Amino acid sequence: MKTLAIIGGGAAGLAAAVEAARESRRRSARMEITVYEASDRVGKSILATGNGRCNLSNSAIDAAVYRNAEFVREAYRALPPEKVRSSFADLGLVMREEAEGRIYPLTNKATSVLDVLRFAIRESGVRESCGTEVVAVTPVEERFLVCFADGGTVFADAVILACGGGPAQSLLPPAYPYAGVLPVLGPLKTDVAPIKGLNNIRVRCEVSLYGRPCESGDKAAGRRKALPSPSLKACEAGEVLFRDYGVSGIAIFDLSRFAEAGDVLSLDLVPETSEDALAADLSLRVERFGSRGAVELLSGMLLAPVARAVCASIGMRADDPVARGRTADLACAVKSFRLEVRGAGDVRQCQVSRGGFEVAPFSPDTMESRLHAGLYVVGEALDIDAPCGGYNLHWAWTSGALAGRAAAGRCAP
Ligand SMILES: Cc1cc2nc3c(=O)[nH]c(=O)nc-3n(C[C@H](O)[C@H](O)[C@H](O)COP(=O)(O)OP(=O)(O)OC[C@H]3O[C@@H](n4cnc5c(N)ncnc54)[C@H](O)[C@@H]3O)c2cc1C
């Protein structure tokens, strides 16, 4: 009987197992499928997703938002997003759509997603070998020697490497180029002086990420030059959470995919109002509440600690009344509160790893290696990542299912 070894029982590995079993049934082929999982049980990574709710897909999956978008586009052509979702429905999962197309299980529990996958593989006779860490996969003639951390080995006719985003370079021969992994989709460390006293405060705003310091204007005078658009790397709207080391929140997570130390985040704290309209509004406030200090002048618009930080960013004293001539400066500071990026924040909170096996040696419609037929790499083990919103899990399901189907086809007589 032909054997398929799936290395890693996370999202992509379980999707691969389900699809391989389904395809071998369809072809009436007898095949032994084993999932080798390093931890004590499969699917733990799925349980942690979406704050335990598992944002498993998105109704508007778009290959363009992924790293290595062309490769992903081909894969989604081979297995369209709606087919992945209907496969889950076939397994019994009822899903609902929330804001921005995010798809969750109706139960709001990641366990429901894992349960339907586990029941499907159990009913198909897929073996689970937990507590089994794979350390190397070596092509030997037409087959693969799989080596385990405890010194054991097995031969397999096909191997699907679904080991996730951790360092995995040593698992495959050196012929497979590997981009070093970097945690992304997480908080960012920034200079902390401008956000002193803001820990745990949330603001809804628009955040732009600039690739280099974006102005050289006279800070004391407060007025800054317009931002040069060519250095704009990315822009996101949403909630930002100030932390004592920097910033967090979904908008920041998404920007973290593009951020490097030395970049600048510019927060527009009143995105619905243009800078000119805001300056006019502030002038009116000066007319009406002229005796108020700067922070009080901004009350009703910004939380007091945030207003204090904004005023400090242009050297304006919090308790002093705002001079008529400085309302434009204040409006500018509210519309572009700047923080310099120092690097990734708490890496334990990062949701994906940038990097992994480069996609060039693999076929996007099957995930099969062009160098060694019968070897497949899927999910986050490849150098593919995407923003928050269900895109990363959707990639794991799709790439896993494509590989599972192709591996079963290869093993069929
Ligand atoms: C906190 C958190 C929340 C997230 N929320 C979402 C979300 O809501 N929506 C979304 O789309 N994405 C989310 N993600 C990202 C998503 O979880 C991953 O993109 C996805 O799980 C990747 O699937 P994978 O199968 O490639 O890797 P994983 O799911 O990480 O699975 C890899 C598996 O391989 C095992 N393994 C590793 N090395 C070996 C080895 N050498 N031998 C044997 N087994 C091995 C691991 O133990 C693991 O079980 C989140 C990530 C995190 C960390």
From TrEMBL:
Residues 4-405 form the RsdA/BaiN/AoA(So)-like Rossmann fold-like domain. SUPFAM superfamilies: FAD/NAD(P)-binding domain, HI0933 insert domain-like. Its cofactor is FAD. Keywords: FAD, Flavoprotein. The keyword Transport does not apply. The keyword Cytoplasm does not apply. InterPro entries: BaiN-like, BaiN-like_dom_sf, FAD/NAD-bd_sf, RsdA/BaiN/AoA(So)-like_dom, RsdA/BaiN/AoA(So)_Rossmann. Residues 233-351 form the RsdA/BaiN/AoA(So)-like insert domain. It holds the Pfam family HI0933_like_1st. PANTHER family: OS12G0638800 PROTEIN. This is Aminoacetone oxidase family FAD-binding enzyme.
